Amino acid sequence: MPFIRRRGVAAAAAVIAAVMVTVTACDSNKTHDEGKGSASSQARADQSDPGVDTGQGGGRSIGGYKLPDGIPADLTGQALQKWRNGGWKDFSHWKSKAEDFANPYIKDFWTPQRMAQAKSTIPVPTQAGSSSSGSSGTTKAYEPDGPVRRTAATRVASTYHHYAPPVGKLFFTAPEGSMVCSAAVVTDPAHPGRSNLVWTAGHCVHAGKGGGWYRNIAFVPSFNDGARYGIQQATQNVRSSSVSPYGLWWTDWATTSQAWIQGGSHQGSVASAYDYAVLHVKPENGHKSLEEMVGSALPVWFNAPAADKIKAMGVRGYPAEAPYDGSKMYDCRGATKRLVLGYSYPSQYPAQYMIGCTMNGGASGGPWFMTHNGRTYLVSNNSLSDRRTYISGPRLGDNAKQVYLATSDKFK
Hints:
Layout: E1 20-22, E2 40-44, E3 52-54, E4 60-62, E5 65-67, H1 78-84, H2 112-117, E6 131-134, E7 137-140, E8 154-155, H3 160-163, E9 167-174, E10 177-186, E11 197-200, E12 215-221, H4 231-236, E13 249-257, H5 258-263, E14 277-283, H6 290-294, E15 313-317, E16 330-334, E17 337-339, E18 343-344, E19 347-348, E20 352-356, E21 367-372, E22 375-385, E23 390-394, H7 398-409
């Protein structure tokens, strides 16, 4: 879901409260092995493959991928019609495992009314000094490395397709209703110049521990392109070129970390160090790739410099909680500090980036970016925020790279 719930943060404040995309940084200390409990999770709902199988034992699959009970496999038959008529609302058997993801396309699902009603939420950090017992031992929330200077987010210049072409707004449905996040187009090593990959936060596609996959996930690049409208007017004109110049893109595959699936929490947890996701999308109309349509995609810089080494980080998104309304793109710039959410003896969990910024719910999943050798890279995504002082994002290490490549490899 989008950002975090606001909680008063004292001087010795909370570790980080809102989910937002961003890169975490490791230092010279030993870190918790990213490969343990954080292998990538993958899922695909193939909307075009006509090959529907009825496997032994009654299992159904599309394109060789098994679908969970209740998810339509016949995309032209009664099952899909039932899904379109409201079957997607049934979360009584919420699917959680990686292989359970399914997101059948529903024509004109995202009506102006649904978009206008979409809400934002974000994981809230554990208060500093609190602790909890996990499967890998005792975990403790740590304070950031020194005070963080509060920096007011500033509006990104319009038009967005010129000044921030890869960034857009993500819509999805959860048991609570319609929700929003932010996201960005990233390059695809399997399809240079023709990427259909989108980077966002794990909490924008999966609820984490005890929850499951969200539904009806769709991406609108350069949402409200000219920044002309408030959210009510923007959603009313969502099919116009001034609001969605590149149309709406439906997610047919989602990949997030196993660590987020097993331990993610909207109260914030050590799993926030793995709070990232990669989507593969398809257009509602047309045949060109997302990168070709947008004209831009961010390469991903894995294992970027540690937080205490970065003096010029950028963070973008569509904050949707007061004083913002989700209609405009904002950003923050500055040096980063290190945030450690927990410690599992004898190892430290991966440190995250944090930066002073007032963006809040709705900005979750938005890109953190840096310039290196003359090129701009995505290095993290918005994950946590206290909604008034700072936001944080995971450091994209080897596990994040596995998540990224797993999505790319499936569409070679």
